[in-house]
Design goal:
The complex is a heterodimer of chains A (about 280) and B (about 200). By secondary structure, chain A is α+β, with helices and mostly antiparallel strands. The two termini of chain B are about 15 Å apart. By secondary structure, chain B is mainly alpha-helical. The chains are: A alpha+beta (about 280), B mainly alpha (about 200). Chains A and B meet through helix 1, helix 2, strand 1, strand 2 and strand 4 of A and helix 1, strand 1, helix 2, helix 3 and helix 4 of B.
Amino acid sequence: MKHRRTIGSLAAVLAISAAIFLYTAHPVKSSDHQDTFNLAHRSNTSADITDMYVFPSPANASNVVLVMNVSPLIPAGQGTSKFFDPSVMWQFKIAHGAVGTFNSEDEVIQITVSGTDASQTFTLHGPGKPNQVGTTNTLLPATGTFSYNNTSGQTLSNGILAFAGPRADPFFFDLFQFFNFLGDRNYSNHTSQSDPGTGDTLTNPMPTFNGFASGTLSGTGGYACSTAPASNALTQAAPPGFNVLSYVIEVPRSLLTSGYSSSTIHVWATASSVSGS
Amino acid sequence: MKKHILTSLALTSLATGLAACSSNSTPIGPVHPAASYVQFERFGRPAVKELFETFVNHQVTNGVEPYADPTLQNSIVGFTNTFRATANGNFLGGTSASTAGLLYPDEMAADLTQTTPAAYLGLETGGATSPVHSTFGGRAPADDIIDISLGAVFGSTLSALGAVPDDGKENNCLTTDNVAQAPSQASGPTFPYLAAPH
């Protein structure tokens, strides 16, 4: 019994150590989290776009779903206490054309928000032709509004179904091991945005992810791959995982194809503000 | 259970501490209907900025359009050259150019005439990244975009597709990170599809 208690205490200490490690040594945890000092230091982190998804609607084959996830690293249990920054305007920017084309955006969906708490109201603008092509933009006429964390979604006048609120972050990556051989990408290895640190340098002469079976694989230099257990910052290493704030915008395909030269879309997400920072 | 509770407490207190340390306050600004908004963050393909571009260049890329971003385009070539040449310096160059050709511009492509499932890079690779060879493209919440990207950069994905001759510089230790999505992260069939918050 005493042993069991000791082991339990040790596990707790290790768990806390792991948690501290997560939040200090390696603050970056998704495919695009905290990628500049500005984004990492804002008190409301919803300008920080962590991931984007584009997929056919599982519920309606006529629709396509656009997801923009923001506000990384919301701890379990705190999702509904995080809100969107009303000084920020988010956009899905879309260029139509075949694969391999380099067209500028010819259609945008814009989202603004008012309020700072659970009564936040969102306004969707578009989809429509942008007033300006490029990185300085004004708003299209409003299409409709929707409320924070209404999980049924709200259908707008043009048929768009919209949601804004906390969800589980679907992303997974052994980022800690990545940082072990490419420390430059770790935000905490830089003293400022302009501090180059060690740059694009392999800090480990035998770069490898963990989790390979013994003797089965080797790297380019003939060294063996690591057989240490793989970790997963977003799930196993810090149960029960992290949340994000999500925009889930389900759009009739026709709104993204009718009147355009191609039904192939190229999508990117942006965050903007009046001050540009 | 105890471990979980303590971990949660540690996370909560740390998060609270971090929030308390911040010097900024949340703006309560109204929407500016006639104002000009200036871009300072951009996201297209997952992990591209993080993998290929040095930290100092992230701010450059965040402030420009993806189709006019030579900083990122050159970074994809330079990074791939560096890593695939590390072992013996006998780099052929084809894979770097092909990787840049595949991943630049930093935009997510989807063919809206297709009703088959989304799969990251499925459109650009003729369905090679999709278990059902879907060419919808886009990105599904369950896609293992890290393994797909690692396979293209460090592995033989591109040569297997016939995009480039095999340069023999694959690093098998870097072609997968060996982690999978947890069940609590998995999306569902009903709106808003992404799993409920933890």
